[in-house]
Write a structure and sequence with these properties.
Elements lengths: L2 E5 L4 H12 L3 E5 L3 H6 L6 H10 L3 E4 L8 H9 L3 E4 L6 H6 L1 H22 L4 E7 L12 E3 L4 E3 L20 H20 L3 E7 L1 E3 L11 H11 L3 E4 L6 E6 H13 L5 E5 L6 E3 H12 L5 E4 L9 E2 L4 H6 L9 H10 L3
Parallel strand pairs: 1-2, 1-4, 2-3, 4-5, 5-8, 8-12, 9-11, 10-14, 11-15
Antiparallel strand pairs: 6-7, 11-13
Length: 346
Amino acid sequence: MSVLLVTGSSGLVGSACAAFFDERGWQVHGVDNNLRADFFGSDGDTSWNLHRLKASTRSYVHHSVDVRDRQAIPTIVSEIKPDLIAHCAAQPSHDLAARRPFDDFEVNAEGTLNVLEATRWHARDAVFCFLSTNKVYGDAPNDLPLKELATRWDYVRPEHYEGIDESMRIDGALHSLFGVSKAAADLLVQEYGRYFQMKTVCFRGGCLTGAGHSAAELHGFLAYVVRCARIGRTYRIYGYLGKQVRDNLHSFDVCRAIEAFYEAPRPAEVYNLGGGRNNSVSVLEAIDQVQQRLGERLSTEYVPEPRLGDHICYISDTRKFRSHYPGWAVTKTLDQILDEMCAVRR
């Protein structure tokens, strides 16, 4: 039986991976100590998702361990000898990173190093998939010429129609401390692939989303809009007239990308991974679509100052990944994602 180790297993992508591979007959081990509850309070608490995962899977084994633990992580890896590692654990917020820089860097960079080293010494042949982020590019995408439309910003030049590809620079940009810690982890994952010839990959995600998101104001865009609309909380729009654009990829399609890479690994590769133009939406458009689905008016507050280093328009160009793995494509449309989120009562 193949063995998966997934970190951040109670989070959105981690829990989706656990369920996805469990359904395919894998033995699944998850590592998660619900640090999101400490980071984001009750909004970020993932204990509900862990209970759901335990109840719905056949072979899931949970380890309440911090990815920074230099004794526990190597012990787990050496005991279970995973065939695949999906490293999804992270501190995911720009704003929180500025308030807690040591926690941010230790979880994102040092935690990744800890899992990489455990893999190198105890499961060297395992495929190592790292959930990186488009924030490794900092605000460099904002330098592209943009045009203002009625409800969104968009790229001016035809060559940018498909979005941001992997040639986007990471230097000379404002990243936020979160972007820096994730960039450090991203480079580490690449280097372990090249220097130690390990089967590593970095997936630089756009907005990875789904109904399993424990969304908070500081993280989880679409799911947080839905939460605010449902409970009557005011949604704050930060800058850019609410026309900033994100592309959205369902966690199920992230799992399919991990599966595709596992079956034919290309060591040290980097891929932008997102929903693409068809799954892109601005803040204003998302609010409108959620209101239509729930039949409830969402109270909003406009904050003129944008979040530091925030992207104005970010659409993931996934052509590189699709050229390497032609069997992969986005299967969950934006409408399906929103329908799923709005149907869940939690």
